Amino acid sequence: MDSADPQLARFLQQLQAETQRQKFTEQVHTLTGRCWDVCLSDYRPPSKMDGKTQTCLQNCVNRMIDASNFMVEHLQKMNHGHP
Asked: Check: CATH 1.10.287.810 for 6-81?
């Protein structure tokens, strides 16, 4: 198949978009699971979330996002030959 085929190009774009959506969904599930384990030690969800738990969840997600961004930036720098 010719690489200039517009149908192939469109298919590859759709495949890339779907792959990115899937990675995002997996990351959300990972964040949710880890932060749930950290902030909610009881296996039963509370009927109403208190301020302490809300703050814990927000901080947990923010730290996970910060760590993820740091790793992406670090890998990009390594990829471009900057230690």
From this structure: yes
